[in-house]
Specification:
150 residues, alpha+beta, 5-stranded mixed beta barrel, rod-shaped, NfeD-like_C
């Protein structure tokens, strides 16, 4: 098996590159991508008299160096693995207390269970009196759209 690989080294490195791209496409973790990048120069280096074991060693070291030094930067720039949800999205469906009357033409204020006061408007444009308990139906920017609790 080793003799077959050493006689077809450019194809071996091309196979490593393709395999890494496929795995990266499935996982989207930005780890095997760097091994694929490290395999590219070895497609050409394999034509030199450098022994296969040295190629493997250099490939492993290059892969580790790329992961350690470039992956954190790439993850930060691409924002991989981070959702852009804010805590305001968690308010949907929760009860809030009206602390300033909400009218058809004026927004009012509501207080969430955590004590934070939010700007609010009525879902159906009806007036909602102070001290009423409402349900948050949706979040529109920094305004909560609320409806009277039945």
């Amino acid at each position: 098996m080793i003799s077959f690989i050493t006689s077809n080294l450019p194809w071996f490195w091309l196979g490593i590159l393709v395999l890494c791209i496929i795995i990266e496409g499935i996982t989207m973790s930005l780890t095997t991508f760097w091994a694929g990048i490290a395999a590219v120069p070895f497609i050409f280096i394999s034509k030199t008299p450098l022994p296969f074991r040295w190629q493997l060693l250099i490939f492993a070291l290059l892969t580790v160096a790329l992961i350690v030094f470039t992956r954190p930067f790439a993850v930060k720039k691409l924002k991989i693995g981070k959702e852009n949800n804010t805590n305001v999205n968690a308010l949907e469906g929760q009860e809030v207390l009206v602390v300033q009357k909400i009218t058809k033409f004026n927004k009012g204020y509501v207080k969430a269970k955590n004590g934070v006061v939010w700007t609010a408007e009525s879902e159906d444009s009806t007036d909602i009196q102070k001290d009423s308990v409402c349900i948050v139906k949706k979040v529109s920017g920094n305004t909560l759209v609320v409806a009277r609790k039945e």
